[in-house]
Write the structure tokens for this entry.
Amino acid sequence: QICNQHNAEAPNLEQVFHRMAQTEPNLDHDISWFLLPSCWAKIIVALISFLCFANSYDGDFVFDDSEAIINNKDLRAETPLGDLWHHDFWGSKLSSNTSHKSYRPLTVLTFRINYLFAGGFYPVGFHVINIILHCTISVLMVDVFSILLGGLQFSNKGRRLNLAPKTSLLAALLFAVHPVHTECVAGIVGRADLLCALFFLLSFLGYCKAFRENKEGHNFSIFWVLVSVILGAVAMLCKEQGITILGLNAVFDALVINKLNVLELIQKLLHKDKSLENIGLLRKGLLFRITLLMSGGASILYIRWRIMGTGPPAFTEVDNPASFADSLFVRAINYNYYYSLNAWLLLCPWWLCFDWSMGCIPLIKSISDWRIIALAALWFCLIGLICQALCSEDSHKRRILTLGLGFLIIPFLPASNLFFRVGFVIAERVIYLPSIGYCILFTYGFSLLSKQAKKKKILAVAVLGILVINVMRCALRSSQWRSEEQLFRSALSVCPLNAKVHYNVGKNLADKGNQSAAIKYYREAVRLNPKYVHAMNNLGNILKERNELQEAEELLSLAVQIQPDFAAAWMNLGIVQNSLRRFEEAEQSYWTAIKHRKKYPDCYYNLGRLYADLNRHIDALNAWRNATVLKPEHSLAWNNMIILLDNTGNLAQAEAVGREALGLIPNDHSLMFSLANVLGKSQKYKESEALFLKAIKANPNAASYHGNLAVLYHRWGNLDLAKKHYEVSLKLDPMAPGTKENYNLLRRKLEQLQKKGG
């Protein structure tokens, strides 16, 4: 028995109603599976879904998390909350030409709350929320699947009856442990899909509540229909797919509430049959409810369109090569091939990858390509299912197959390239909602097999084995999402032709200081995609640091030739040209970088260094001042201003700049050191000493800090302290320039004083 049906007393109207509902075909009758009370079923689903992804709780920020969270200013308290409604998911203005137009303010708001509660960018809190969300969604799936598989029936007391407790539990478990969900749960950016799914399901359940008082199909609650529309809007504000729930609610209403036979309706429309009114379109209020859903959906889309602007998002060919193909045939063939791969990921989620772009899936350009077989298989299965959904004499079968196909296809439509170009080839996260349809079809197929099978327990053991394998796969995949190194390396065997995979492995190695290994992966990325400007830029940077300037210049020059507005490559090219002492070309490259990126403090800093090398001191100071205006915490620019003013004898100005810098960055020991030097030369020994000691406390192993403090004491006449700090400096760096000579001078002076004293 299930929790919402138990009653130890004499049979009442609720039990009688339940028996009447059971006269419809029941999927549970033929399968050998666990029969648990609803509350226990939900506890089991929650625990198993938690078990699948629990090991991701202490993972790092990985892949897109950096841009969506760490570099997203919308998460910080100083950013007004109102800005979230005018920015995209990545923190860019929706009006910007570079915006991806992904409008998900409610998801960003949850990130901001996470950040504020944690007091910074600590990933544990973010991961825990994702795991809790997936567990909650999986629990809700028990109710959703009980409606989709068993139908919507209420007792006289308005209590919804679970007419398919075994199959709804199986379907919910299949959903909870599906490995393709790992990206949504273990990747923090997947929060958008999880929140969208949560409100998507709440919208569906809210729509079902509209019929709680329904007896003959006449009565329904307009309030709950409107609540469903609002929850659909909330789902869309978490991720774009959320709007599709309104279409699915309409399909559910037609098939389950009104029990429409789609094929019969089409035939009557074609023959202009006057008996259309018998179908109940108007009598049961279906058209009115669909009008409410469509009006709500249209209003939501219009408001979003006004906020987003009319311009489409800007994507490049490497993001979605099929969408840039000139031939309509090539586009259609490849889109369908992508659909077949998505279907395969649902059926066999073994080969999973964080990114499927950049050559991972080569384009099909000819009908002789053997991969056409995948398209044929996909459409053979879909057409077969559609025919059964339309033509079967079994109304129960028609309903389940149509709902399964609806939940499989409709939430996937925004990612299908049919209405607009999307910025990916395959994205595992977008299959989170369509997997509901897959679970319906799988469970229904299992019930049909069980009906025919003589040894039902063997079939049940096989399905249980699939669940166990999926749990293990989820745990393994979650562990790969714990760090970028594991995530990127896991993709090498799945997508060896993906230039971005090699690029990310190389970048991860470079960040860890392993430049030799990074060069290998960057070179492979450029070989796989000769127009991969970001790989060229990073490879050029490493070669520049290794003083391989000629090849670095060639790579960076090629990068800016391919993408003339690539500001970072122009700046790095300027640094290489400066090192090659081609100063005019370097200056031109720096200004080109600034032309393409107006607010570029690092470029102004490097331009200042160029001017300093050319003894153009005023220009150098102006460039560094621009850098600090754009980025007030730019320590290197402040330091160079202080040092240049110090070296040119402008001690008063150097002191003023130093105090201004320390006011903005009070804990920067390098600024303390530079200002201490200036104060020492201005004979402000006490203040200089205090700054030197503070800098040494922050960085006790800097030989120059001890050496310059020793010089201060030497000038000040504190010879014993000078001797002590000279010795510490020489111990830290025996080759420190000037320190040994100053120490020898001090020793001779001390010896002379001792002789005089003797």
Notes: The mean pLDDT is 88. The first helix runs from residue 13 to 21. Residues 510 and 518 are 5 Å apart (CA to CA). The radius of gyration is 34 Å.
